[in-house]
């Protein structure tokens, strides 16, 4: 049986996890803006002076996105499959009770109510985990690029 404190604790933990994911989402947007700006400057410079272009930086652009979004898709798939498995188990419990051909006893109804509450809390927690897992590789790539590109000082133009 779930006690109210455990339920509340799990809800708070899931809420804090969602808030953390939201903050990481903001960091990702800010980092992406910095990376786009830095890379746009490199592209602009390369147009004026193609032999001085940062080809290594240009070569990273597509593969890093493919890797980050691939990892994100893998995390989403893994977590969605786990959520679907939990939903299937819960629907089997409900279906077995419905197909028993009798009115459930108080004990059986109580067990199902506890299982349903546990499933609902698990679904909320799993949803928070899914968002965190989906964003993590993209956040890591964007913030890593922002740090790396932020350390590169613009070349001083000679007059």
Tell me what the structure shows:
The protein contains three helices and no strands. It is mainly alpha-helical. It has a domain at 61-151. The termini are far apart.
Which key phrases capture this entry?
159 residues; mainly alpha; single chain; 3 helices
Q: What is the chain-wise order of helices and strands? A: HHH
Describe the largest sheet: none
Helical percentage: over 70%
The beta-strand count equals 0
**Class by helix and strand content?**
mainly alpha
Q: How large a portion of the residues is in β-strands, by DSSP E?
A: under 5%
Overall pLDDT level:
91
Distance between the termini: 77 Å
Give the CA-based shape. Answer: elongated
Low-confidence stretches: 152-159
User: Gyration radius, to the nearest Å?
Assistant: 25 Å
Short note summarizing the structure:
By secondary structure, the protein is an all-alpha fold. The chain has helices at residues 4-48, 55-98, 106-151. The protein is built from 3 helices and no strands.
């Amino acid at each position: 049986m779930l006690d109210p404190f455990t339920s509340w604790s799990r809800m708070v933990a899931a809420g804090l996890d969602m808030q953390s994911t939201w903050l990481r989402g903001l960091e990702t947007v800010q980092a992406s803006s910095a990376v786009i700006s830095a890379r746009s400057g490199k592209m602009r410079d390369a147009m004026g002076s193609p032999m001085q272009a940062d080809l290594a930086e240009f070569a990273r652009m597509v593969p890093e996105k493919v890797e980050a979004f691939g990892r994100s898709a893998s995390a989403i798939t893994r977590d969605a499959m786990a959520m679907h498995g939990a939903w299937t188990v819960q629907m089997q419990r409900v279906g077995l009770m419905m197909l028993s051909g009798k009115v459930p006893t108080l004990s059986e109804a109580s067990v199902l109510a506890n299982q349903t509450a546990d499933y609902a809390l698990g679904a909320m927690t799993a949803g928070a985990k899914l968002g965190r897992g989906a964003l993590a590789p993209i956040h890591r790539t964007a913030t890593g690029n922002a740090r790396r590109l932020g350390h590169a000082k613009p070349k001083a133009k000679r007059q």
